[in-house]
């Protein structure tokens, strides 16, 4: 049975799971929500009482949170362990960067995008811009002397952060001084799964540009 993935189009966490599925060669059936009300339907609440997306239904096994889902997909479906090596230290670094995503980068995105989507905000407060710049500063340092976020090769750390960072770039442009980040995004963009990020990213960019116009 093809795993079913419940998502919002354009959502960075949804794109994280979509690119992970592509990276491991797994087809998923996307169920796309269009309103928040759909998340609180009785049917979906039975699957996920927290009513969050992305949520994965893999033949009755229900998992939510993008980082949990991507680890599950790689562990179950990937023959190549390089995305999530068994070495304890490498895994710890991957988890560290995933927590950076969920604890700093993604909240910076949420604090900007929610007022635009739901309060008709037309400007981004300087405090929110500063928060995003802090994220960029940290990531630039993480990438110093490295091609990839967790070390010498592509891992789930990169797949976790790429959708969030490229989405933040739509809101607070990545300055040209961030050479490491720019190079990292270029490297990711050459990989076969990147189109699964670009499609949702383009949809998000178009929507935000229209709302801010």
Give the total of domains: 2
The fraction of residues in strands falls at: 5-15%
For the biggest β-sheet, the strand order reads 2-1-3-4
Question: In one word, what is the shape?
Answer: globular
GO molecular function, one term: glutathione transferase activity
Subunit structure: Homodimer.
InterPro entries: Glutathione-S-Trfase_C-like, Glutathione-S-Trfase_C_sf, Glutathione_S-Trfase, Glutathione_S-Trfase_N, GST_C, Thioredoxin-like_sf
Report on this model:
There is one protein chain. With 213 residues, this protein is of the alpha+beta class. The protein has two domains: 4-77, Glutaredoxin (3-Layer(aba) Sandwich); 88-212, Glutathione S-transferase Yfyf (Class Pi), Chain A, domain 2, CATH 1.20.1050. 58% of the residues lie in helices and 8% in strands. It contains eight helices and four strands. A four-stranded mixed beta sheet has the order 2-1-3-4, covered by helices on one side. Helix 1 packs parallel to helix 3 (66-77) and helix 1 (12-23) runs antiparallel to helix 6. The protein is globular and about 45 Å long. The model has no long low-confidence stretch (mean pLDDT 97).
Keywords:
213 residues, alpha+beta, Glutaredoxin, Glutathione S-transferase Yfyf (Class Pi), Chain A, domain 2, 4-stranded mixed β-sheet, 4 strands, 8% strand
Annotate the secondary structure layout.
Layout (H helix, E strand, L loop, with lengths): L3 E5 L3 H12 L5 E5 L8 H6 L7 E4 L2 E4 L1 H12 L10 H31 L7 H17 L13 H16 L7 H11 L5 H18 L1
Parallel strand pairs: 1-2
Antiparallel strand pairs: 1-3, 3-4
Pfam family, one: GST_C
GO molecular function: glutathione transferase activity
InterPro entries: Glutathione-S-Trfase_C-like, Glutathione-S-Trfase_C_sf, Glutathione_S-Trfase, Glutathione_S-Trfase_N, GST_C, Thioredoxin-like_sf
């Amino acid at each position: 049975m093809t795993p079913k993935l419940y998502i919002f189009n354009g959502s960075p966490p949804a794109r994280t799971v979509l690119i992970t599925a592509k990276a491991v060669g797994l087809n998923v059936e996307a169920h796309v929500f269009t309103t928040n009300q759909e998340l609180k339907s009785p049917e979906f609440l039975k699957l996920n009482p927290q009513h969050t997306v992305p949520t994965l239904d893999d033949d009755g096994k229900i998992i939510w949170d993008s980082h949990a889902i991507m680890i599950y997909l790689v562990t179950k479906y990937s023959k190549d362990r390089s995305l999530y090596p068994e070495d304890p230290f490498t895994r710890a670094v991957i988890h560290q960067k995933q927590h950076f995503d969920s604890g700093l980068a993604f909240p910076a995105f949420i604090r900007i995008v929610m007022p635009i989507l739901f309060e008709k905000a037309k400007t981004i407060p300087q405090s929110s811009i500063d928060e995003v710049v802090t994220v960029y500063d940290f990531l630039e340092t993480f990438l110093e002397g490295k091609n990839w976020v967790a070390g010498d090769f592509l891992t789930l750390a990169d797949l976790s952060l790429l959708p969030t960072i490229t989405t933040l770039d739509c809101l607070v442009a990545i300055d040209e001084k961030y050479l490491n980040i720019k190079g990292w995004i270029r490297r990711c963009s050459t990989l076969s799964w990147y189109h699964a990020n670009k499609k949702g990213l383009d949809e998000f960019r178009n929507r935000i540009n229209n709302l801010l116009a």
